[in-house]
Amino acid sequence: MALMEIRVYGDPVLEKKTEQIAEVDESIRKLVSDMYETMKAAPGIGLAAPQVGISKRLCLVDLSAGADPDQLKVLINPEITAEEGYQKAEEGCLSFPGVFGHVERPMNVKVRYTDLEGKKREIEGDELLARALCHEIDHLDGVVFINRLSPLKRRLVMKTIRKLKREGKWEHRPGEGSEERA
Fold it and tell me: Range of 137's domain?
């Protein structure tokens, strides 16, 4: 298991739609293992393959941030099949270190995906789980969370990012930070 570099906003891989995974093989299992270690070290509650530079339709969600390995959800080729309700709450992202914003998301979602054994599954999530699933699936579609902010809020976030870049604080390595981010 190896820690992977988490890509920060500005890296083109974060805004490209990912490729479907044709087969769940040992290379995918190794990638999941490395991504899980990276997500725990960051620490975060979710990580999508593009965030580590891999343009594959794969994401992880673990609301325990690695404290309870049984909570890990590995979603291969996920797609949202139903959503309902509304919630608006602050989000952060491992690819946006130090940046947060209030994002509107569904309160409940259903997601169809393939598991690590290659079996088709469905998961239902509400509240924080729904938010994390939507956030990570957005990454797989090339959508970053600031795209979900109002134009004014997005401009303010971009101003913050420019300031962090000038201060040399826009690079991120696994294990830094203390907030839980998706």
Answer: 12-166
Active site residue 136: yes
DSSP assignment string, 56-100:
BSEEEE-TTTTS-GGG-EEEEEEEEEEEE--EEEEEE-TTSTT-E
The residue annotated as part of the active site, out of 122, 136, 167, 179, is: 136
* Residue at 175 is within a domain: no
In a domain, 151, yes or no: yes
- The model's pLDDT over 22-80, given as tens digits with 9 standing for 90+, comes to 999 999 999 999 999 999 999 999 999 999 999 999 999 999 998 998 999 999 999 99
* Stated pTM of the model: 0.90
Cα-based distances in Å from 115 to 42, 75, 132: 24, 6, 17
What's the structural domain count of the chain?
1
